[in-house]
Amino acid sequence: MAICFCQSFVIRKILIKASFYYLIPIKLGAIFIGMRINWRNITAIVIGMLAGSIANMGVIEIGSMLIPAPNGVDIENFESIKAHIHLYQPSQFLFPFIAHCIGTFITVWLFMFIASTRYPIRYVNMFGTLFFLCGVYMVYILPAPIWFNLLDLTIAYFPMAYLGYQFSIRKEKVPIQ
Asked: Looking at the domain assignment, is residue 14 inside a domain?
């Protein structure tokens, strides 16, 4: 059953209005109504998240070599860390904090370097929120000191995402006169 072009256009227009443009993508055949797929942005999201996660784990691994865990703690076992968290000194919380900052920063910076979007702050907020929610989950499952939790949740995610955005802005060079 074929639909003429005029009817198809009217149906698409109605579906776009019904989908609130971007909130509910409606698939009609091979065309997504109300949503444009930008493969460059999807690739940038995946590469940014991978790079940020690798940087996060790399900093934590380097930190565990430079500042070893207290005696009796197996850093490969989460239950061991959880049971011995009261033995950790403030210096041993330094590298997890730096790792969270660098992971968020690199994710946003790399995304902004690769992606092409008219609304970059949406993605900055998305990455900041995603990393923040992961940080809240870690606060929930790991009983770290309250000062570390507050420092980590207030500085390591949203400010670092915004800083990654600021560092990625391409400024035009002004010629010297």
From this structure: no
| Residue 92 domain flag | yes
> Within a domain: residue 64?
yes
| Residue 108 near residue 132, CB atoms below 8 Å | no
- pLDDT tens column, 11-25: 555 545 544 444 444
82-125 pLDDT, tens digit per residue, is 888 888 898 989 999 999 999 999 999 999 988 887 888 888 99
Residue 11 domain-assigned (yes or no): no
Tokens of 30: 């091979």
Asked if 162 and 124 count as a contact pair (C-beta separation under 8 A), the reply is yes
Name the domain count of the chain: 1
Maximum Cα–Cα distance across the chain: 75
Torsion angle, CA of 108/128/48/145, rounded to 10 degrees?
A: 110
If DSSP codes are grouped into helix, strand and coil, which group holds residue 73? coil
3-state secondary structure of 26: strand
Provide the whole-model pTM.
0.73
| Structural domain boundaries enclosing 149 | 39-168
